[in-house]
């Protein structure tokens, strides 16, 4: 591959954030309580995210970092000005459900909530930045959790559709790209953070997770139907936590184990794109003794309303073996992996694999033959602010290699890729740990893990590097 090759015309370069990690504005202008507002910092965070520790049983002095996050709610104009300065073509963000419907069951949406997002969207559109909106990003009104048991109940499907309809109608003609659920497969790994599930003692957790998955899949299909009915120009995508599993060795058992674990990643997108439960999923449910509660029209709904594109996050690849006694375990995007001796890792143990991004792009495109969209990618690292900036060459190196890998997937392999929105373009709190010190952004936010700081914003070295990448449409990649 030679230098100075550019990306396709209209490629959507940009960045991504999510309300639950970025927006803050807790209780402001009528916002109701949401999942993020009861996710604690510290030792209990993982247990709550897993749905094993009820958030109602936390100590009174518990700290909830998502309530303020980095306060986009009161810094939105400044932050979008940074995106304009960098030349963003797209900005992926999520809307806080409880800012639109505080309890999730109101008849009418909150005008204050809609107006807040409308001013954000209007500023983006006026500056030729395509809004890419995630309807539900690890976020839902807490009232739906406490009243209906969250997505266990089909009443939450109705609430979600009522919420989606309000968004589609209010932002018709302004928002083209919609994502129904962020990393929908994460509900299998962090059920409370992903879907508001708190398990009851003696409950069959696998059965609950698959029923919740089914209800979300039906909701996604019906939201896709609504989006197209309200505006035929709407494009609706699914979104999964991506990253291929490699076999630990060439042993056939390892190869099969990798294939089987990759199916767990594809379970949701297979249904959202192809419109039906694949045979491997039906067999797994049969073997687990799980009988999904379905309405008569569910299978037809899934079949008739597939998504228009596939979006995904990619941070690292994964390694697996059928032999549980081999290899050293390392961290990943919530899902752990065996240590791959051929790869370096971040400070948090996430393995750095640009070629894995190219592989993932090829696998997804061959599997579905629909447009792809990378909506999260980046390096979480500890940054040091010196004289008002951060010399984050390590981040530039990571991004440069991953961008070249996606360029190769487009120009050599023929993958249809809509765009790339790197994660946490403005520093935000980590979903998995609640930390500020795990930073991804081009803009440093002055806040530490204890919640202290001015919240002032400072462009990093990568800010100006990414500006050049966008201006050249990728030709300046080295």
UniProtKB/TrEMBL annotation:
Matching PROSITE patterns: GLYCOSYL_HYDROL_F1_1, GLYCOSYL_HYDROL_F1_2
Family matches, as InterPro entries: GH, GH_1_N_CS, Glyco_hydro_1, Glyco_hydro_1_AS
Stored Gene3D superfamilies: Glycosidases
Record carries keyword Nucleotide-binding: no
Pfam families: Glyco_hydro_1
List of catalytic residues: 376
Alphabetical keyword list: Glycosidase, Hydrolase
Family, similarity comment: Belongs to the glycosyl hydrolase 1 family.
Cross-referenced NCBIfam families: PRK09593.1, PRK09852.1
The protein's name: 6-phospho-beta-glucosidase
Organism ancestry: Bacteria, Bacillati, Bacillota, Bacilli, Lactobacillales
